[in-house]
């Protein structure tokens, strides 16, 4: 389980670095745009595999965003945490996967480049 979690985290870091390789001063990064590019290439490895262990690890990282000067609410952490146990249909699971990928991509981009509060 830890091995798959580490693999997923590394995959996200590599993905974020390759999808937004420009300098931090290039402007804010939109996690939704990164997720759209990611899913256009085919679905990534699922977060909810292994009974949700990797997804829960990702939610833990998002929930700890405050330790890095970021607000966990910016990533929908509470909403995602409530949804993880209510994935009744394939459509629910797919929507959760996309939402968690979007949140993680935004979080990783914000860790890399910083986040400017919305006006």
Which features would summarize this protein structure in a list?
single chain; 119 residues; mainly alpha; 59% helix
Q: Can you put this structure into words, describing what you see?
A:
By secondary structure, the protein is mostly helical. It has one domain. It has five helices and no strands. Helix 1 packs across helix 5 (90-113). The termini are far apart. Residues 20-25 have low confidence and may be disordered.
Topology at a glance:
Layout: H1 2-19, H2 31-40, H3 53-63, H4 77-83, H5 90-113
Helix pairs in contact: 1-3, 1-5, 2-5, 3-4, 3-5
Mean pLDDT, all residues = 75
Oligomer: single chain
Assign an overall shape.
Answer: globular
Biggest sheet statistics? none
Structural class: mainly alpha
Short description:
The chain is mainly α.
């Amino acid at each position: 389980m830890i091995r798959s979690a580490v693999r997923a985290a590394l995959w996200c870091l590599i993905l974020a670095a390759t999808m937004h390789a420009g300098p931090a001063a290039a402007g804010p990064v939109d996690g939704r745009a990164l997720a759209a590019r990611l899913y256009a290439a085919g679905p990534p490895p699922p977060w909810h595999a292994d009974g949700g262990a990797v997804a829960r690890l990702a939610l833990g990282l998002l929930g700890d965003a405050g330790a890095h000067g970021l607000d966990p609410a910016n990533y929908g952490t509470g909403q995602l945490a409530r949804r993880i146990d209510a994935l009744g249909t394939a459509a629910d699971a797919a929507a959760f996967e996309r939402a968690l990928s979007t949140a993680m991509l935004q979080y990783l981009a914000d860790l890399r480049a910083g986040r400017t509060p919305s006006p």
